[in-house]
Structures are given as structure tokens and as C-alpha cells.
Description:
Blueprint: H1 3-18, E1 33-39, H2 45-56, E2 60-66, H3 70-80, E3 84-89, H4 96-107, E4 115-119
Amino acid sequence: MYLDDIVLAAGAFELGVRSLPVSTEESKKPEERVVLGVMGGPWTIGTAIVSANLKAHGFEVIDAGSDIPPEKIAKTALDSNARIIASAIYLTHSAAEEAKLEEELWKLGIRHKIRTILSGPA
């Protein structure tokens, strides 16, 4: 495959995911909420795939964004009362961001309530 083909396929996937119907049911329990975020990079195709899979299995997904600091992910988890954080790091120089996320969760007093999942090639 050529990179152009991958980029076009990723764009089609993201467009398709956005066209899916949004559930109108009331908010999920905290254990059913997942905060997604990418630290140190503007990549979104991975979070779109993970988000689609989580939603298909009944989770409420809160997208904190991409290329964001760990503080924003932690604050989003606090504000949404989520119990799961799924974060991604794509470059090795950003790996220290995960430790910062853990520290921020402790500072906010919610680390003991949160399960963290880390993904990405780094």
C-alpha cells in the first residue's frame, strides 16, 4: 500500500464514523465512560477506531482531543466522572507524558478511581 491510499482510507473511515447515529439514551454509569486522548501528536485515526469499537460495545466515549497535555486528559476525566482513561503516545520523546498523566491524576485526587490504558507504538 502507498501512504496516499492509507490516508484516503483513514479519511473515509473517520467520515463514516461521524455519520453513525448518536445514541440518545441517558448518560452511562461512570464505569461505562472512557476518556480518550492523544499526547504529543496530532493523530486521530487510532482514537477513531478505538472510539467506534467502544461505542459498539456500549461505552460512552469522551474525546479529550489529540496533541494535548496530560493535564487536559486528567481534567476531562474529573469533569466527566469517567473511570477509564485510554491514552496514546506515538513518538518516544513523548513517553514521559504518561508519567505526567499519572501525577496529575494523583494531584486531582482521582488516581485510585481510574483505570488507565496506554497505547501507541512508543
